[in-house]
Amino acid sequence: MNKFAFLSVAILLAGAVAAKPSFVLPERLYALPGRECNVYFSNVFGTVMPQTYAFEAKAQVGEAQAERWHWTPKTEDAGRMERLVLSAWTDDGLVAAATTTVVVAGAARRKDRRTTVALFADSLTNSGYQDELFRVMRTDGFSGYTPVGSRKPMQPGCVPHDGFGGYCCKAFLTYYNVTEDELARVQDAAEREQLAALGVPVKVVKEWQRELLKSPLIRLDGGRKIVDVPGWMRKANGGEPPDVVIVELGVNAVFGLEGSAEEMRREIRSRVIPEFEQFVAALRPHMPKAVIAITSCPLGCGQDGFGANYGATASVRQHRVTLFELNRALADYVRRQKDGPLALVPIAQAIDPVHGFLRAEMPANARTSEKVVRDRNALHPSTSGGAQLADAIASWLACHWDAFADE
After folding, report:
1. SS in 3 state form for 50-83?
2. What distance, in Å, lies between the first and last C-alpha atoms of the chain?
3. What is the pLDDT of residues 189-229, one digit of tens each?
């Protein structure tokens, strides 16, 4: 081996050492008596190949399985706190370890205290997790839990919310698109000119697209887009600020980015986190006492789901690199933020990366009758996956309920 080849190998090995994976695990996780609390190892270990590691979970409670640690606290566990230690191994030894504390919700004093909860979210709401969250909270006795939002579903069992497919923080502060038929109906020439100045009119192909074209936080004033939080509050909650605002956003701001972990880190911290800061800053003056709670971002499923949605233009490898950097950055942002009550709601660890997503049976290839089950949607949970997200959010809400009531 010549010296240049040797140098190249040395550089590669140095890069491998520098890229040693680590856990992205919040300092606290939350649990609710009678509800399963899950930590799926591949969701919290920042590697593109989680299947090449052996995972261990050590705790005085729960059960460690091949892919997860899980525990369903009993009624008598209310208020309990348990230490959970996760570690990842190869044949060469320990690669990484992390510790968290699992907090079980105690007996809330005022479950009947009306607590309004808004949700700004993306298309993960298509799984119905916001509706299941309502059912969990009410079933567990939190009769005061009151979802509010500008989208008022008419179907039984569905709750108000502000979940919009394709949205990120920036979209909520900027989206106001005019449709072709909307522009055609305007009679006044000056008004038509103002609307046309907003951009190329959008052709609506399907009616459900209409409500995604205009952010509920934006109104027009003299042809200008204005962020109107009080206007949203009038639509969502009778003009009153909500007690809690859950923000489940982020994936749409980073999806499609390509690069190394370091490049993703720079992009997310220089562009995406400032968008979260701007979103919170827009809300905060109008709801100074509200707890604004930012969720971690679920990672999605395996490569088959990415292939089904995006062909060969996107990969689970890149997505994992990006999402782990996003979740690290979100945790850091919440930790250093001191302007009003801000919290992190850990949900990424809670969703089954295999059975929590949409799957379908199909031929293994075009020349066989043998069937296999493959993921069919990269990012969107199934109903059961959405229910796991609901359990994780409900656990956080229940653990902090008395704090909301004391405001």
Report:
1. HHHCEEEEECCCCEECCCEEEECCCHHHCCCEEE
2. 70
3. 544 455 455 554 555 545 666 777 889 999 988 778 899 99
